[in-house]
Amino acid sequence: MSRGGSHGELGQRIDYVFKVVLIGDSAVGKSQLLARFARNQFNLDSKATIGVEFQTRTLNIDARNVKAQIWDTAGQERYRAVTSAYYRGAVGAMLVYDITKRQSFDHVARWLEELRGHADKNIVIMLMGNKSDLGTLRAVPIEDAKEFAERENLFFMETSALEAINVENAFMTVLTEIYRTVSKKNLVANEEPDSSGNSSLLKGTKIVVPGQEPPSTLKATCCMSS
Amino acid sequence: MTAQPMKRAIVESGDGGLGLGIATFIANGEDLGPIIRHSFESGKPEALMQNLRSIVKKKEVEIEELCRLHYEDFILAVDELRGVLVDADELKGMLYGENSHLQEASADQLLKLDELLELYSVKKNVGEAITTLKICVEVFSLCMTCNNFIAEAKFHPALKTLDLIQKGYLRNIPLKLVKKVVARQIPLIKLHIEKKVCSEFNDWLVHIRRMAKQIGQASISQASSARQKGEEMRARQREAEGHSHAGPDEHLYALDLENTEEESALHFDLTPVYRAHHMHTCLGMEDKFRDYYYKNRLMQLNLDMQISTSQPFLESHQPFLAQVAGFFIVEERVLRTADGLLLESQVETTWETAIGKITSILEEQFSRMRTASHLLLIKDYVTLLGAAVNKYGYRITQLIEVLEKSRDKYHQLLLLDCRKQIDDVLTNDSYEQMVIKKEYEYSMNVTAFHLEHDDAIPDFPYVTSFSSSVPDVCRIVRSFIEDSVSYLSYGGLMNIYDVVKAYLDRLLIEVLNDSLLNMIYARSLGMSQMMQLAGNISVLEQACGMYLLHSAQLCGIPKRVAERSHSGLTARAVLKASQNAVYNALINLTNFKVDEFMVLLEEVNWIAEEAPDNANDYMNEVLIYLETLVSTAQEILPLEALYKVVSGAMSHISDSIMTTLLNDGVKRFTVNAVLGIDIDLKTLEAFADDKFDSTGLSDLGKETTFRDCLVEIRQLTNLLLSSQPENFMNPVIRQRNYGSLDYKKLAIICEKYKDSADSLFGSLSNRNTPQQSARKKSMDVLKRRLKDFS
């Protein structure tokens, strides 16, 4: 039987490949977020939780074909710090915590420190409060997260992998911002041929408040990560 | 006539002898055969015949005699026989009567007897029929049993029953029709069983191929979990080792991993294989099935080995490798448990072929990769695959070798990436000392890399001795070390520390040092920036120790062992050489700057009528610059470098003044101009002495002071201002006071020296003092003698 590959990529020219890493405590739902985002393009027969795992999805931003390469630790963070190879070449990062577990939010600072210690300085970082569907069990007020994001110059969204709330938005925001950064660098390089093109772009702080979107009518049954 | 009677006499005499012998033989009842045979063989049968006839005649005579004697007895006997005959006839009549009587009496009994015999015949036939039917019933019963077994898919008892029918009953079935039907059905049923079993086996083939990926993934997942637990243990030991400084144990820790969690066994069902194999064995077709199994599994493997072309290998490699791993785990189980279905040599051959294919795929894919982390991702999965299948007895040497071959490629990609990062960091650095305002910043940029000797947290704001590129470079190098260790771990190498060190050296020499040299020679940095760069290089050179310890720690070598090791990084010496390069660049920059001010020498009035009261303008400018230079360098540069830079500047100033006096720009100069130079030098010498003391350089015990750098111009000035310049020609005085002066240079300069008496109005002046006259006279002597030398 032939494997159902991603037909969308056949014969399609890829303009950019952006590596984005998912980091955060264990069991905050990183893998579910990844599965939700990449579900239309990439279906694994079975879930392999071995080492670092990644999935890809090809998007269209400003008429450009952008391939998002999303890397997931797949539980590796439970044993030791994620290695620097995981961060190498990453242009974006999704820092995930669980809104029902205060500890996972308290650890965000540590994850941020590791990110800044290993990744590129200009990496685009999105703070994601997952499991927003469990509002009755909330342990992290949204104001706390907003304040932290403003202070640390991060993007912020609350998401629900279960109900597909803001997952697409979060990834698209990061990828679009990365695309803009890359485009600006190219523009600067074009405008000033003599310069090395290393202009330090001012990165504005954008707080994206989760909209009151109705959940998708086709509610997929997605079990919570253990 | 006399002759004939003699012949008869002789013959008769001989006959008499033979006859007696034969008669005796006959009387005794002996066998006459030998005698007769001998007689015929000797050719004399006539004599024997005569003797025999003679004996016959004698016997006949005896018989007649005997008959005559017994005549009377004979006649009596005949009479007696005739009497017996009469009695017999009488008895015969009596018997005949009895017989008739008996016949009449038993007529009824005879009819009954006939009936009885008929019934015996019927009984026999019925018995035979019953026997036949019993056999048929047994056969039919077995046939029904066989049918039931087949209906329930219990093929082995069905086959047993079939065999029983064939061997035990088929020959003995009395009914021909039944026998024929059964004989025809047996091979058909066997064929049916074979097809059924094959169909079931084929279903299993499809199923096991789908399952193989899961089996492989589960096995690789187990290997991954074991590895992660190992990492956790090592991390804990690293922490414990860091805390306990005074440990007597210098040996590497042996990890005693107690397997508290039982590994969940890989569950997959081989029953259809066992059944099919056994059934084919019972059917006498074991070889056929063995061949069928091997070929079909080989075809499946060949399909598994085709990698996806529509999908990048980075995305398809995990399912691909898991599929292959699962395939071979199944084969190993079949080999162990299926009782000769597979040969060990077959599995090994298949594995060698498969691993050869995998290695060639990996080599091709690795050669096309452009990102180090992708190569590392695949390498990790390949080593997990190796660990998983090695547990089942498969040799993974080729896998290890392909990773070894790709090691340089991986590190090349890493080095390329690091080069970009380091170039970026160095280019974007402002080369100003970092001002750290928070403890977090200090921790991230200083403590993390042990860039200060004291680990205590200072007061904030804190000014570092290095600029921001130093911690950034340290971060890049640390990532390189970690990525290098990540690739080399779980490979073939047992001790990866030396390899990591070699690659680290390459990074620091070929990438970092080259980038630093580029910055040095790029002429894009100003003086203070170049000084900061020098300071940075000094710190980076010291950081090599930290890199080594970090490498050792990641490679599992205890800190104390690494600290005691004497072999360091080659890069350290190279960076020190670059330090000298940057010092030279600093000297060049300084001298270049000094030249900008020394240009003002051209504005000096070399034929001044009066001695100046203050230093010339050029010297004021130079002193201001040098003041700034020293105060900045003092904060950043080590004393050795500071000494080199300032000494170089001083020497350069001295050389500049000498060069100016030697050049055509100055046609002539007067004693007043020399007096001006003297004032300049005194000012500069005062500066030099002050800085030499205040910077602490005097404590170093340097033989050459800053003032000593000005010795040439000082001696020249002293000579020109001397009342007896001709003393230069005195060897003792020259050695002591004018040792740095060159004959040729001095000759050129002295030619330009003009007293005011030689001016246009010299002859009219009457102000010559006796002292001036004496000096002029002495100078003329010196000029003349120097000319003679040249």
What structural class is derived from the secondary structure elements of chain A? alpha/beta
The counted number of beta strands of chain A is 6
Shape of chain B: rod-shaped
Mean pLDDT of chain B: 75
Give the N-terminus to C-terminus distance of chain A in angstroms: 32 Å
List the helices and strands and how they pair.
The complex is a heterodimer of chains A (226) and B (790).
Chain A: E1 16-24, H1 30-38, E2 53-61, E3 64-72, H2 84-87, E4 92-98, H3 102-106, H4 108-118, E5 124-130, H5 142-152, E6 155-158, H6 167-191
Parallel strand pairs in A: 1-3, 1-4, 4-5, 5-6
Antiparallel strand pairs in A: 2-3
Chain B: H1 3-28, H2 33-42, H3 45-69, H4 71-105, H5 107-151, H6 155-169, H7 176-243, H8 271-282, H9 286-304, H10 313-337, H11 344-368, H12 372-390, H13 397-405, H14 407-428, E1 435-436, H15 439-445, E2 462-463, H16 469-488, H17 497-521, H18 527-554, H19 559-564, H20 570-598, H21 617-636, H22 639-662, H23 671-694, H24 711-721, H25 731-737, H26 743-752, H27 770-789
Antiparallel strand pairs in B: 1-2
List keywords for this structure.
heterodimer; A: 226 residues; alpha/beta; 6 helices; 20% strand; B: 790 residues; 4 domains; two-stranded antiparallel sheet; 27 helices; 74% helix; rod-shaped; disordered N terminus
Can you walk through the features of this model?
The complex is a heterodimer of chains A (226) and B (790). Chain A has 226 residues and is an alpha/beta fold. Chain A has a single domain (16-186), classed as Rossmann fold, CATH 3.40.50. Chain A has 6 helices and 6 strands; from the N terminus they run βαββαβααβαβα. Chain A has a 6-stranded mixed beta sheet with strand order 2-3-1-4-5-6, sandwiched between helices. In chain A, helix 5 links the parallel strand 5 (124-130) and strand 6. Chain A is globular, with a radius of gyration of 18 Å. Chain A starts with 15 loop residues before the first strand and ends in a 35-residue tail after the last helix. Chain B is mostly helical and 790 residues long. Chain B folds into 4 domains: 16-128; 199-235 and 266-393, no CATH class; 412-582, Exocyst complex subunit Sec15 C-terminal domain, N-terminal subdomain (Tetracycline Repressor, domain 2, Orthogonal Bundle); 603-758 and 766-786. Chain B has helices spanning 3-28, 33-42, 45-69, 71-105, 107-151, 155-169, 176-243, 271-282, 286-304, 313-337, 344-368, 372-390, 397-405, 407-428, 439-445, 469-488, 497-521, 527-554, 559-564, 570-598, 617-636, 639-662, 671-694, 711-721, 731-737, 743-752, 770-789; strands spanning 435-436, 462-463. Chain B has a two-stranded antiparallel sheet with strand order 1-2. The N and C termini of chain B lie far apart (198 Å). Mean pLDDT of chain B is 75; it is low at 1-15, 245-264 and 757-766. The A-B interface holds A 3, 5-7, 9-10, 19, 42, 44-46, 48-56, 76, 78-80, 83-89, 113, 116-118, 120-121, 196, 198, 200 and B 213-214, 217, 220-221, 224, 228-229, 231-232, 235, 308, 310-312, 314-315, 318-319, 322, 371-373, 376-377, 380-381, 384, 417, 421, 424, 427-428, 440, 444, 448, 472, 475, 478-479, 482-483, 486.
